[in-house]
C-alpha cells in the first residue's frame, strides 16, 4: 500500500517538475479613458527582458525593440487591478499604430512607446 502511494507521489512530483512553463502570458486588460470609455485589450507579460524582444519581433513585427526597451520610461498607469499583470516584471501593449513597453514597479506601469509605420492589433 505505501509503495503505491510513494510511486504515485513520485510520478506526481516529476510531472509537476517537468510541466512546461510558458515564457509569457497574454493577459486581458480593460483600460479606462479619462474622457470616458474603455478599451478591452491584451498585455503580453513576461519576466525575462529577452523574451520581450521575441514577443515584439514575432507577434508584432517590431524591429526597434532595443530602442523602446532601453529608453527612458515614465510612470503611466496603475497596474490594472484584477489582472495578472502585477505578477510580472515587464509587459508589452500594442494597439493600432502604438507599441508600448512597460516595466512593472511600485504598483505602476512605467512605459515608453513608439509609433509604428502600419497598424497592429
Order of helices and strands: HEEHHEEE
Helix content: 25-40%
The main sheet orders its strands as: 1-2-4-5-3
* Overall body shape: globular
Main sheet overview = 5 strands, antiparallel
| Radius of gyration over all CA atoms, rounded | 19 Å
Topology, number of strands: 5
Average pLDDT, to the nearest integer?
Answer: 84
Q: Spans of 5+ residues with little confidence (pLDDT < 50)?
A: 10-20
What is the percentage of strand-forming residues? 35-45%
Cα-to-Cα separation, first versus last residue: 56 Å
Structural class: alpha+beta
Number of helices: 3
Question: Mind explaining what this structure looks like?
Answer:
By secondary structure, the protein is α+β, with helices and mostly antiparallel strands. Helices cover 29% and strands 43% of the residues. The protein has three helices and five strands, in the order H-E-E-H-H-E-E-E. The chain has helices spanning 2-18, 49-60, 65-70, and strands at residues 24-32, 38-46, 74-78, 90-105, 108-120. The protein has a five-stranded antiparallel beta sheet. The longest helix is centred in the N-terminal third of the chain and has 17 residues, at 2-18. It is globular and about 65 Å long. The relative contact order is 0.17. The model is unreliable at 10-20 (pLDDT under 50).
Summary, kept brief:
The chain is of the alpha+beta class. The chain has three helices and five strands. It has a five-stranded antiparallel beta sheet with strand order 1-2-4-5-3.
Amino acid at each position: 500500500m505505501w509503495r503505491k502511494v510513494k510511486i504515485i507521489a513520485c510520478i506526481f512530483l516529476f510531472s509537476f517538475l517537468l510541466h512546461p512553463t510558458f515564457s509569457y502570458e497574454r493577459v486581458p486588460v480593460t483600460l479606462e479613458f479619462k474622457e470616458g470609455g474603455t478599451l478591452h485589450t491584451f498585455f503580453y507579460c513576461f519576466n525575462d527582458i529577452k523574451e520581450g524582444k521575441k514577443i515584439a519581433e514575432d507577434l508584432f513585427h517590431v524591429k526597434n525593440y532595443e530602442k523602446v526597451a532601453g529608453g527612458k520610461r515614465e510612470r503611466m498607469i496603475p497596474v490594472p487591478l484584477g489582472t495578472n499583470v502585477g505578477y510580472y516584471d515587464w509587459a508589452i501593449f500594442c494597439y493600432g499604430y502604438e507599441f508600448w513597453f512597460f516595466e512593472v514597479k511600485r504598483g505602476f506601469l512605467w512605459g515608453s512607446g513608439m509609433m509604428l509605420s502600419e497598424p497592429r492589433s
